[in-house]
Structures
1.
Amino acid sequence: MYETEKEELIKVLNKKGITDENVLKAFLKVERHLFVPEIIKHHAYSDVALPIGHEQTISQPYTVAFMTQALELEGRNKVLEIGTGSGFQAAILVEMGMKVFSIERNYEIHQRAQKLFDELGIRAALIYGDGTLGWEESAPYDRIIVTAGGPEVPKRLLKQLAVGGKMVIPVGDRKTQTMQIISKISTDEYKTIEIPNFKFVPLIGKEGWKSE
Ligand code: SAM
């Protein structure tokens, strides 16, 4: 289903600079129309963010692809995602062979993603809670991806990132954010690349914004 639309989307992503074959292959496999509300299914393969209820969004495909490419995944990395939302980003990571942990602070959104993953047989650990605190129990993580924008990089996430690991996180004010691609060189040394002009819903929590 939607094969032509998917192939068109892959072309768009490729033109915008997504060249990682494994990322593009995952976009051919994962059915984005299953992750959006029924009523807007026909927009699922357009390169736009879409509403998923509770004032939240499924990120624009380009943004998902850009962040996934920036993670430079290797083998079967252990990946922590903050902001499960629709579950689409997590499904892309699972499709690419990663061991995925994903945290969502909105209980209904978390439950909906869990139900969808059960129905589709997608294996990932979906956790309900404040992702700015990370998930200590399964740390360290080879990769961390944060899909909501906060005022700064949560210190606990930096701590839970493995040495040699990478984190991708949008940081800024509530209107626009800069994507930070952080490499952890040693326990207290990091190298950061910044790419401006992203727009995310707010990261709300103990080490994020304090209110909606
Ligand atoms: N990755 C998602 C996807 O593929 O659909 C898109 C996520 S949406 C742009 C951001 C999500 O982050 C929202 O569902 C929001 O409730 C969640 N969120 C915001 N602050 C959070 C926090 N502190 N911990 C966990 N989730 C959070």
2.
Amino acid sequence: MDQNKRPESMQRITTPELAEAFIAEQVKAVQEQVGDKKVLLALSGGVDSSVVAALLIKAIGKQLVCVHVNHGLMRKGESENVIEVFKNQLDANLIYVDATDRFLDLLAGVSDPESKRKIIGAEFIKVFDEESAKLDGISFLAQGTIYPDILESIKQAEGKKAVKSHHNVGGLPEEMEMQLVEPIKLLFKDEVRVVGEALGLPHAMVYRQPFPGPGLGVRCLGAITRDRLHALREADAILREEFDLNGLAEKVWQYFIAVPDVKSVGVKDESRYEGWPAIIRAVNTKDAMTATIEEIPYPVLHKITARITSEVEGINRVLFDLTPKPTGTIEWE
Ligand code: XMP
């Protein structure tokens, strides 16, 4: 039987009961596969790696070693949340690596989006590799592969052309000689979420909107600078807060701020104030291949604009991107 093919008889996991049964089955399978050996996992804090971490903690406890690499391009509070949930609440064996300076130094002056992606992807593997080399006796590598990833790689193997190189950070260093543990590889995203909730992960983590591997790196448009990245992160946090408060987080598939490397003239405290624009992107889609623009009530947009322009240093305008995909891609880069 092809281990990477979902059997037609496999029931769709839609209820907590079905999730519990799946968890029990996988806990047993992982225990049998791993024995008393150690397993390494790159824990980004995204839905897939978080669910794998929670599942493996249940199966093998401290035999799982999670490594969370903060590449300095995370959203506000995200790495702190990974530490809070996994280290403090689930008592995981978690190694936290703050590699912000390494990434931002390498990215300085690089404006081409694909070069930025390549640098981030390659450096991530390097950092992860270095951390794993410090550990003794790791025999397995766990991955948050899900079924759409398998279907996607089949398509790629068939030679379909990609618009962007969507390599996820968290990719497997090819030369690593470890066996894989991939407990959710036959699940679709909605099933992963049901399993995540059954494992007791916080709702916000399980229903987190998709976040690209290169993170804010492809939203701080052009060559990344620390001050513009900081402004972007703060503006994005305000957007997320207001979407949560106004019930939009559940209605909009992906929403974020992009900040281009352009300044315009504004006025603040009766003086000239040059600043960057914050661009709001809020899209709905089923498969990210096409996307439509969600209507956001004007009062919400006004509030977000007022907050961003008054609370975030360096931003003096807020724009709303009305472009569907196509012609715009979801991300600006
Ligand atoms: P685009 O911009 O191609 O985005 O319309 C479609 C979906 O993919 C995400 N995206 C990425 N995800 N690495 C990722 O892991 C990347 O380099 C990357 N680029 C885009 C994007 O956020 C959207 O959900």
